[in-house]
Specification:
The protein is α/β, with parallel strands linked by helices. The chain is built from 10 helices and 17 strands. Helix content is 40%, strand content 20%. Strand 8, helix 6 and strand 9 form a beta-alpha-beta unit.
Length: 348
């Protein structure tokens, strides 16, 4: 894993330099209903689900990174892939007078109701992984999901060239699912017209992915490539479905289906080494946890931020809805760099 201390120093320098942020001592730092600036007080952390190895890893990083950043993080709450439950979870935390919230939204639109409640209570919120469509958050900690779809498209386009490829999509109520899907589709149409893109709307659910992939393979046994938008939930069912049809052949062998994924979990890295899949985009679960904690502590202390490059290898951008997003690096992993010790999946 990256050295936490070194990254903390780098993150702290964001506020002290002109690297993408500015201090504003007059802003409300949260802290429940009292409206006073404070970097102290309990912070609620809300997860979207825990059935994915990616979110399991993030969940394990949270207390470690909270300690590193000096944040009093409460035990995490799992919304179990239910957006209505997530709003209830956030309201329950607000009723416990939390000083801040770090939330990974399930539904980019629905989360606005909970964000509005937090704003009324003067409680700052940092969003992780998913950008809300509306509502107030101090920062979105995320990687560029459009780039995810484009990298997957380029990889399959270069490796497959022509033929049928499948994208197993996420939940389209999440901006992540929409951006990855639209970017992959647009890239294929523009740059690789000989690819025929087939789509599976799987909603981040492994059972849906397996059932629809099975049906699709029955009708299209000549599929050449697969893009899994979330290896954490789609890797196991995809490999099992291919194995059950005797269609899982290692890279380099005749009949191999080129597979590129998203997440960077240890299981994906091992699958790359064995040749079962070819590539993945490594979402930084460790950095999501670290910078979620970093930004909520800064927000509770009254700090504000501006667009621009940071000194931890990312860029803060202003989204069309006016929210700020720190777009953390997310590298493409192949056989050439799968053993890189800087990949968080190699530290698990």
């Amino acid at each position: 894993m990256r050295a936490v201390a070194a990254m903390t120093v780098a993150a702290t320098a964001v506020l002290l330099s002109a690297c993408g942020s500015t201090s504003d001592s007059g802003s409300d730092g949260g802290g429940g209903d009292n409206g006073q600036e404070s970097a102290d007080g309990p912070v609620g952390v809300v997860l979207p689900l825990l059935t994915s190895p990616f979110w399991q890893a993030y969940n394990e990083y949270v207390p470690q990174m909270a300690d590193s950043e000096g944040v009093d993080a409460m035990d995490t709450i799992n919304s179990d892939n239910d957006s209505a439950q997530q709003i209830t979870d956030i309201n329950n935390l607000l009723n416990q007078n939390v000083a801040g919230l770090v939330v990974a939204p399930l539904d980019s639109a629905a989360i606005a109701a909970a964000l509005d409640q937090a704003e009324r209570r003067g409680v700052p919120v940092v969003a992780v992984d998913v950008a809300p469509e509306s509502g107030q958050v101090e920062m979105i900690v995320r990687a560029n999901n459009v780039a995810y779809g484009e990298m997957a498209c380029d990889y399959l386009g270069e490796q497959v060239g022509e033929g049928k490829v499948v994208q197993i999509m996420g939940d389209l109520s999440s901006v992540n699912g929409r951006e990855r899907s639209e970017a992959f589709r647009a890239c294929a149409a523009e740059k690789y017209p000989d690819l025929e893109v087939l789509e599976i709307p799987a909603d981040w659910e492994s059972d849906k992915a397996a059932a629809q992939l099975d049906t699709l393979l029955n009708a299209n046994p000549d599929i050449q490539g697969i893009y899994m938008q979330a290896g954490g939930v789609y890797l196991a069912p995809t490999l099992q479905t291919l194995r059950s049809k005797d269609m899982l052949h290692p890279a380099g062998e005749e009949g191999h289906i080129t597979i590129v994924s998203n997440d960077g979990i240890p299981q994906e890295l091992e699958a790359i080494r064995s040749g079962e899949i070819d590539a993945t985009v490594s979402q930084p679960a460790d950095s999501y946890a670290q910078y979620g904690m970093y930004y909520i502590r800064a927000a509770m202390a009254g700090e504000t931020f501006e667009p621009g490059p940071t000194d931890h290898g990312s860029t803060i951008v202003e989204l069309p809805n006016g929210l700020l997003e720190d777009q953390l690096p997310a590298p493409l992993v192949t056989r050439e760099n799968v053993d890189d010790p800087e990949l968080w999946g190699n530290s698990r």
